[in-house]
Amino acid sequence: MRRISSAMNNMDTQSALRLQESRLNRANNQMGSQQKIQSLRDDPIAAGHLVRYKSYLGRVNTFENNAKALTDQFAFSEGYMTNSLEIMQRVRELAVTGANGVYTKDDMNNMAMEVDELLKELVQNANAISSDGNAVFGGTNTKSTPFEIEMGAVQGSAVPLIESVRYNGNIDSNKIEVDENKYMNVNNAGNRTFWAEQQQLFGGRDASSWQAERDSVISVDGVEISINSGDNVYALASKINESGAAVRASIDPITNGLNLETTDARQLWLQDVDGNALNELGLIKDSSQKPPYNIGNSVRLSGGSMFDTVIAFRDALLKGDHEAIGSRVLGSLDNGINSLVTRIARAGSEYERAKLNIERNSKTALDVTQQVSREGDLDITKAITDMKMLDYAYQATLSNAGKLYSNTLLNYMR
């Protein structure tokens, strides 16, 4: 129940004016921001949807940018690998030529000079630096030179030549998110890309009586494997084979040593993470030595890199040993070329997958943008009409208030 008083008209008029001003101010704010939701209370359900849509849109844009960066990396590395393949094919042509035994020693020395230059170019490709200043083939160790060359005296040459090439990077990979909880691995470890043969390790220590004294953890090709107290060498070999690492373990029937072999062309990477199980087996040195050059002194290794193969070819040319060229060297070159072709094919496949992610995320971003627009964007035509109506009502209210208070004290003094 309302009380009738002389102040009632004034209070009602002031209340109506304030209400009209509030509505007009809200319409002006909507027009200025072009957003129909100015606060959560305007439409709580739509506001909740809008927050989620915008959050997802931000993630989708990040996924798209990640995929674009990946395509750049894959294209960059594929270019250097393709150029390295051309180098290896030229080296093979020279190997076929030098293996027929009809060339003189001087001719083979001349071929060795070209092979040495091709070797330098191959090392240069392996030490490539991307446009952002990172080493392409160093794994995650992108701020150092992946491959270090060692010069030395070589039989048949009057000047020092490249004697060996050592890998200084690592085998770690980066996981790049290209979709919701979906990742692509970026693994450009140089000791895989530029490796020619499957590497084999032959343990020289009898491990038949070995037994783990305590729980420990080893790393084989970057995969951590847990060893339980009481495990013997047969259990260890079984765990390595079941770990998913690209390495197969076996027990030598003669020496009873633990043998390891990679499943494709790559360098073995062994490490004691917790404990010293591999050191006890004689496979690696103590934990102060880091892979890949921590292999034990009693271990025999076979299978080298493309650099080792090209160096062996050059040295055979300098010695005039065409028989070695036609057998061991030519076979290693073929293995290296096949391995590099596989790596190039994988890089190309990853590039295409990254491009598909770019296209999908771009379309998803458009769809989510439409959802954001539907929930939050202002209908300009309707907003202009509403604002004009509110302004008309506000002016009418002011006019009516002016008529109500047109009488003054002077009207009563006549």
Plain-language structure description:
The strands form four sheets. The chain has a four-stranded antiparallel beta sheet with strand order 8-9-5-11. Strands 7-6-10 form a three-stranded antiparallel beta sheet. The model has no long low-confidence stretch (mean pLDDT 86). The protein is 52% helix and 14% strand. It has 414 residues and is of the alpha+beta class. The longest helix is centred in the N-terminal third of the chain and has 55 residues, at 44-98. Strand 8 and strand 9 (258-265) form a beta hairpin.
Secondary structure blueprint with pairings:
Blueprint: H1 8-33, H2 44-98, H3 105-126, E1 147-152, E2 161-167, E3 174-179, E4 182-186, H4 190-193, E5 198-202, E6 216-220, E7 223-227, H5 233-242, E8 247-251, E9 258-265, E10 270-274, H6 277-280, E11 300-302, H7 306-319, H8 322-376, H9 380-404
Antiparallel strand pairs: 1-2, 3-4, 5-9, 5-11, 6-7, 6-10, 8-9
Helix pairs in contact: 1-9, 2-3, 2-7, 2-8, 3-7, 7-8
Overview in brief:
The protein is α+β, with helices and mostly antiparallel strands and 414 residues long. The chain has helices at residues 8-33, 44-98, 105-126, 190-193, 233-242, 277-280, 306-319, 322-376, 380-404; strands at residues 147-152, 161-167, 174-179, 182-186, 198-202, 216-220, 223-227, 247-251, 258-265, 270-274, 300-302.
